[in-house]
Amino acid sequence: MLYTASYTHIGGREENEDTVRISRAGENRLCLLVADGLGGHGGGRLASSAAAEAVLAGWKGEADAQKLKDLVQEAHRRVQSMQTRQCAMKSTIAVLTLAGNRAAWAHAGDSRIYRFHRGKLEFQTKDHSASQIAVLMGDITQDQIRFHQDRNHIIRALGQDGELKVDADELLLDDGFYAFLLCSDGFWEYVLESEMEADLRAASDPEDWLGRMRARLQTRIPEDNDNNTAAAVWII
Protein backbone atom coordinates (compact mmCIF):
# COMPACT_ATOMS: atom_id res chain seq x y z
CA MET A 1 0.00 0.00 0.00
CA LEU A 2 1.18 3.52 -0.86
CA TYR A 3 0.37 6.44 1.43
CA THR A 4 1.35 9.97 0.40
CA ALA A 5 1.42 13.57 1.59
CA SER A 6 2.83 16.83 0.26
CA TYR A 7 2.90 20.56 0.87
CA THR A 8 4.44 23.71 -0.53
CA HIS A 9 4.82 27.08 1.21
CA ILE A 10 5.82 30.50 -0.03
CA GLY A 11 8.05 31.15 2.97
CA GLY A 12 9.18 34.75 3.28
CA ARG A 13 9.33 35.41 -0.46
CA GLU A 14 6.98 37.36 -2.72
CA GLU A 15 6.21 34.35 -4.89
CA ASN A 16 6.31 30.58 -4.55
CA GLU A 17 8.50 29.18 -7.34
CA ASP A 18 8.40 25.59 -6.06
CA THR A 19 6.16 22.94 -7.60
CA VAL A 20 5.07 19.63 -6.09
CA ARG A 21 3.08 16.92 -7.85
CA ILE A 22 1.78 13.45 -6.95
CA SER A 23 0.26 11.34 -9.71
CA ARG A 24 -1.10 7.79 -9.61
CA ALA A 25 -1.47 5.30 -12.45
CA GLY A 26 -3.30 2.49 -10.71
CA GLU A 27 -3.18 1.25 -7.13
CA ASN A 28 0.57 0.58 -6.89
CA ARG A 29 2.00 2.98 -9.47
CA LEU A 30 2.99 6.43 -8.34
CA CYS A 31 5.04 9.45 -9.41
CA LEU A 32 6.22 12.08 -6.91
CA LEU A 33 7.97 15.23 -8.07
CA VAL A 34 9.45 18.36 -6.50
CA ALA A 35 10.89 21.18 -8.61
CA ASP A 36 12.43 24.46 -7.44
CA GLY A 37 12.31 27.24 -10.00
CA LEU A 38 15.16 29.68 -10.53
CA GLY A 39 14.95 32.99 -12.30
CA GLY A 40 12.69 35.29 -10.33
CA HIS A 41 9.94 37.61 -11.58
CA GLY A 42 7.67 34.64 -12.26
CA GLY A 43 10.18 32.82 -14.41
CA GLY A 44 11.07 30.30 -11.73
CA ARG A 45 7.42 29.46 -11.09
CA LEU A 46 6.80 28.92 -14.79
CA ALA A 47 9.94 26.79 -15.17
CA SER A 48 9.20 24.45 -12.26
CA SER A 49 5.58 24.04 -13.26
CA ALA A 50 6.44 23.36 -16.91
CA ALA A 51 9.10 20.84 -15.90
CA ALA A 52 6.64 18.97 -13.69
CA GLU A 53 3.95 18.87 -16.36
CA ALA A 54 6.42 17.64 -18.99
CA VAL A 55 7.50 14.72 -16.81
CA LEU A 56 3.98 13.74 -15.81
CA ALA A 57 2.70 13.99 -19.38
CA GLY A 58 5.24 11.40 -20.50
CA TRP A 59 5.04 9.06 -17.51
CA LYS A 60 3.12 5.89 -18.30
CA GLY A 61 3.21 4.20 -14.91
CA GLU A 62 6.64 2.59 -15.15
CA ALA A 63 9.56 2.70 -12.69
CA ASP A 64 12.52 2.69 -15.07
CA ALA A 65 15.62 4.83 -14.56
CA GLN A 66 16.43 5.30 -18.25
CA LYS A 67 12.89 6.29 -19.14
CA LEU A 68 12.89 8.69 -16.22
CA LYS A 69 16.13 10.27 -17.45
CA ASP A 70 14.51 10.70 -20.85
CA LEU A 71 11.51 12.43 -19.29
CA VAL A 72 13.73 14.82 -17.36
CA GLN A 73 15.62 15.59 -20.58
CA GLU A 74 12.29 16.41 -22.22
CA ALA A 75 11.48 18.71 -19.30
CA HIS A 76 14.89 20.35 -19.74
CA ARG A 77 14.12 21.08 -23.39
CA ARG A 78 10.69 22.39 -22.43
CA VAL A 79 12.21 24.92 -20.02
CA GLN A 80 14.81 25.93 -22.59
CA SER A 81 12.06 26.62 -25.13
CA MET A 82 10.33 29.01 -22.70
CA GLN A 83 13.37 31.16 -22.02
CA THR A 84 13.61 34.74 -23.25
CA ARG A 85 16.41 37.27 -23.36
CA GLN A 86 14.85 38.93 -20.32
CA CYS A 87 14.33 35.73 -18.30
CA ALA A 88 16.69 32.75 -18.49
CA MET A 89 14.43 30.68 -16.23
CA LYS A 90 15.67 27.36 -14.84
CA SER A 91 14.52 24.71 -12.39
CA THR A 92 15.85 21.90 -10.23
CA ILE A 93 13.98 18.61 -10.19
CA ALA A 94 13.66 15.53 -7.99
CA VAL A 95 11.32 12.80 -9.21
CA LEU A 96 10.49 9.33 -7.89
CA THR A 97 8.43 6.64 -9.61
CA LEU A 98 7.08 3.47 -8.01
CA ALA A 99 5.59 0.44 -9.76
CA GLY A 100 4.91 -2.60 -7.63
CA ASN A 101 8.17 -3.46 -5.87
CA ARG A 102 10.32 -1.30 -8.18
CA ALA A 103 11.47 2.26 -7.53
CA ALA A 104 13.27 4.61 -9.90
CA TRP A 105 14.39 8.18 -9.32
CA ALA A 106 16.16 11.04 -11.07
CA HIS A 107 17.34 14.48 -10.08
CA ALA A 108 19.19 17.60 -11.19
CA GLY A 109 20.12 20.51 -8.96
CA ASP A 110 19.83 20.65 -5.19
CA SER A 111 16.32 19.32 -4.60
CA ARG A 112 16.85 16.05 -2.76
CA ILE A 113 15.50 12.52 -2.54
CA TYR A 114 15.86 10.56 0.72
CA ARG A 115 15.13 6.85 1.12
CA PHE A 116 14.45 5.26 4.51
CA HIS A 117 14.13 1.50 5.11
CA ARG A 118 12.76 0.13 8.37
CA GLY A 119 13.02 3.61 9.87
CA LYS A 120 16.68 4.21 9.00
CA LEU A 121 18.12 6.56 6.38
CA GLU A 122 19.52 4.33 3.66
CA PHE A 123 20.24 6.73 0.80
CA GLN A 124 20.15 10.39 -0.21
CA THR A 125 20.96 12.09 -3.49
CA LYS A 126 24.00 14.33 -3.81
CA ASP A 127 23.40 17.95 -4.74
CA HIS A 128 24.63 19.38 -8.00
CA SER A 129 26.10 22.45 -6.36
CA ALA A 130 29.39 24.15 -5.64
CA SER A 131 29.07 23.31 -1.96
CA GLN A 132 28.65 19.59 -2.75
CA ILE A 133 31.88 19.78 -4.74
CA ALA A 134 33.52 21.28 -1.65
CA VAL A 135 32.39 18.18 0.27
CA LEU A 136 33.88 15.87 -2.37
CA MET A 137 37.17 17.79 -2.16
CA GLY A 138 37.21 17.43 1.62
CA ASP A 139 36.94 21.15 2.30
CA ILE A 140 33.69 20.86 4.27
CA THR A 141 31.52 18.08 5.69
CA GLN A 142 28.17 17.01 4.25
CA ASP A 143 26.33 18.74 7.11
CA GLN A 144 28.21 21.99 6.43
CA ILE A 145 26.47 22.32 3.06
CA ARG A 146 23.63 23.87 5.02
CA PHE A 147 24.20 27.65 4.94
CA HIS A 148 27.55 27.32 3.15
CA GLN A 149 28.43 30.48 1.22
CA ASP A 150 28.21 28.64 -2.12
CA ARG A 151 25.08 26.60 -1.38
CA ASN A 152 23.00 28.57 -3.91
CA HIS A 153 25.52 28.06 -6.71
CA ILE A 154 23.78 25.31 -8.69
CA ILE A 155 25.89 23.59 -11.35
CA ARG A 156 23.09 21.57 -12.98
CA ALA A 157 19.54 22.72 -13.67
CA LEU A 158 16.81 22.24 -16.22
CA GLY A 159 17.08 25.11 -18.70
CA GLN A 160 20.85 25.46 -18.52
CA ASP A 161 22.76 26.00 -21.74
CA GLY A 162 23.39 22.88 -23.79
CA GLU A 163 22.79 19.33 -22.62
CA LEU A 164 21.87 18.34 -19.09
CA LYS A 165 23.42 15.40 -17.27
CA VAL A 166 20.73 13.70 -15.20
CA ASP A 167 21.52 11.38 -12.31
CA ALA A 168 19.11 8.44 -12.13
CA ASP A 169 18.94 5.00 -10.57
CA GLU A 170 16.48 2.26 -9.72
CA LEU A 171 15.99 -0.37 -7.04
CA LEU A 172 14.06 -3.55 -6.44
CA LEU A 173 12.52 -2.98 -3.03
CA ASP A 174 13.01 -5.61 -0.33
CA ASP A 175 10.49 -6.53 2.32
CA GLY A 176 9.86 -4.08 5.12
CA PHE A 177 8.64 -0.54 5.54
CA TYR A 178 10.04 2.06 3.11
CA ALA A 179 9.62 5.82 3.20
CA PHE A 180 10.76 8.32 0.58
CA LEU A 181 11.08 12.07 1.07
CA LEU A 182 11.52 14.58 -1.78
CA CYS A 183 12.19 18.21 -0.86
CA SER A 184 13.55 21.55 -2.00
CA ASP A 185 16.55 23.20 -0.35
CA GLY A 186 14.25 25.52 1.57
CA PHE A 187 13.16 22.42 3.48
CA TRP A 188 16.28 20.29 3.97
CA GLU A 189 18.46 23.22 5.03
CA TYR A 190 16.48 23.40 8.28
CA VAL A 191 15.81 19.73 9.04
CA LEU A 192 18.72 17.41 9.83
CA GLU A 193 18.75 13.84 8.57
CA SER A 194 18.80 12.50 12.14
CA GLU A 195 15.64 14.52 12.81
CA MET A 196 13.99 13.12 9.68
CA GLU A 197 14.63 9.64 11.08
CA ALA A 198 13.34 10.51 14.55
CA ASP A 199 10.17 12.10 13.21
CA LEU A 200 9.60 9.14 10.89
CA ARG A 201 9.70 6.72 13.81
CA ALA A 202 7.26 8.87 15.80
CA ALA A 203 4.81 9.65 12.98
CA SER A 204 1.51 7.89 12.37
CA ASP A 205 1.37 8.58 8.62
CA PRO A 206 3.13 10.68 5.94
CA GLU A 207 1.06 13.78 6.75
CA ASP A 208 2.10 13.54 10.39
CA TRP A 209 5.73 13.00 9.35
CA LEU A 210 5.79 16.15 7.23
CA GLY A 211 4.00 18.06 9.98
CA ARG A 212 6.60 17.12 12.58
CA MET A 213 9.46 18.17 10.30
CA ARG A 214 7.71 21.40 9.33
CA ALA A 215 7.34 22.23 13.03
CA ARG A 216 11.11 22.05 13.38
CA LEU A 217 11.58 24.18 10.27
CA GLN A 218 9.24 26.88 11.56
CA THR A 219 11.33 27.38 14.71
CA ARG A 220 14.51 27.97 12.67
CA ILE A 221 13.70 29.94 9.54
CA PRO A 222 14.44 33.67 9.16
CA GLU A 223 11.73 36.09 8.05
CA ASP A 224 12.97 36.09 4.45
CA ASN A 225 13.30 32.31 4.20
CA ASP A 226 13.03 30.54 0.87
CA ASN A 227 9.99 28.69 -0.47
CA ASN A 228 9.88 25.25 1.14
CA THR A 229 8.30 22.13 -0.32
CA ALA A 230 8.22 18.41 0.36
CA ALA A 231 6.47 15.23 -0.73
CA ALA A 232 6.48 11.88 1.09
CA VAL A 233 5.37 8.35 0.40
CA TRP A 234 5.21 5.36 2.73
CA ILE A 235 5.30 1.86 1.29
CA ILE A 236 3.72 -0.60 3.70
Can you characterise this structure?
- The protein is α+β, with helices and mostly antiparallel strands.
- The chain has one domain: PPM-type phosphatase domain (Phosphatase 2c, domain 1).
- It has six helices and eleven strands.
- Strands 2, 3, 4, 5, 6 and 9 form a six-stranded antiparallel sheet that branches.
- Helix 1 (43-58) packs antiparallel against helix 2 and helix 5 crosses helix 6 (206-218).
- The chain is globular and about 50 Å long.
- The N and C termini lie close together (5 Å).
Biggest sheet, in brief? 6 strands, antiparallel
The total of helices stands at 6
Shape: globular
Q: Report low-confidence residues grouped into runs of 5 or more.
A: none
Keyword list:
single chain; 236 residues; alpha+beta; 5-stranded antiparallel sheet; 6 helices; globular
Question: Helices, strands, pairings?
Answer:
Blueprint: E1 2-9, E2 18-24, E3 29-38, H1 43-58, H2 65-82, E4 90-91, E5 93-99, E6 102-108, E7 112-117, E8 120-124, H3 130-136, E9 167-172, E10 178-183, H4 185-188, H5 193-202, H6 206-218, E11 228-235
Antiparallel strand pairs: 1-11, 2-3, 3-4, 3-5, 5-6, 6-9, 7-8, 7-10, 10-11
Helix pairs in contact: 1-2, 5-6
